[in-house]
Design a protein that fits this description.
Radius of gyration: 19 Å
Shape: globular
Number of strands: 2
Strand order of the largest sheet: 1-2
Number of helices: 10
Number of domains: 1
Distance between the termini: 19 Å
Order of helices and strands: HHHHHHHHEEHH
Structural class: mainly alpha
């Protein structure tokens, strides 16, 4: 059984942050999953020509960027640097969504793909509109909620920034980066971000499978080989 972090709600993780051994187990599993996904994607290296404007090439480039960014997120969180990791998370979701949009191979997505190859920005609303038309309002609203949450991190709302401070004497704010080792970073914040990262890694695997770049059997075997046989038990409830 895998680490409990894979199934944790970020809010629950924030309230119960001291599952350090479970987080260590997650870090080991996540590192293996992301490295193996990256290795599989690298099998397409040298397969596409410079002037190729195919859907497959676009998906490969976008998903390679996503997986490599996730590896960097994991490294940053291990260093207690959730500020930069959080900024990357919305970027990763947008990049994955763009790959899913292009993989739909519709008239609209192909039109936007041609723009993308001409170095134009494709707004995320194009994907949201596509989801609304193909999967309905419920799925579109779920996507909107996720995007709104990640947007708060990217746009540095007050609460997002407040996660990077601890309270000193007389309730004064002390920035966690005051020390080079970031020892002041609260365990609540890191636990929350680990749970969020776990969710995004799962979404990444599903998106890659659905886009068809890697087969479902490859994705399944990567997870099977990476997850440990025994789950580290919880210390606190």
């Amino acid at each position: 059984m895998p680490s409990i972090v894979w199934e944790r709600d970020p809010r629950e993780a924030y309230k119960n942050p001291y599952e350090y051994k479970a987080q260590d187990q997650f870090v080991g599993e996540a590192k293996k999953i992301l490295n193996e996904l990256f290795d599989e994607l690298m099998k397409y290296s040298r397969k596409f020509e410079r002037d190729d404007t195919s859907i497959k090439k676009a998906i490969w480039m976008l998903q390679t960027d996503s997986v490599d960014s996730l590896r960097y997120c994991l490294l940053l969180l291990k260093q207690n640097n959730h500020c930069i990791a959080g900024r990357l998370m919305r970027d990763i979701i947008e990049t994955l969504d763009l790959s899913a949009f292009f993989s739909s191979d519709s008239g609209k997505s192909n039109k936007e793909l041609r723009k993308w190859y001409k170095d134009k920005i494709i707004p995320h609303r194009e994907y949201r509109d596509f989801i609304k038309k193909t999967k309905g309002d419920e799925e579109a609203n779920r996507l909107k909620e996720t995007y709104t949450m990640l947007s708060k991190i990217a746009h540095r709302t007050y609460r997002t920034l407040a996660y990077g401070y601890v309270l000193g004497r007389n309730n004064t704010l002390v920035y966690e980066g005051t020390t080079k080792t970031r020892l002041l970073t609260s365990p609540e914040t890191i636990a929350m971000y680990f749970a969020l990262l776990a969710n995004i890694i799962s979404i990444t695997s599903i998106t890659i499978k659905n886009c068809g770049l890697l087969s479902g059997s490859i994705i399944k075997n990567i997870w099977k080989d990476s997850l440990e046989k025994k789950t580290v038990p919880r210390r606190f409830v």
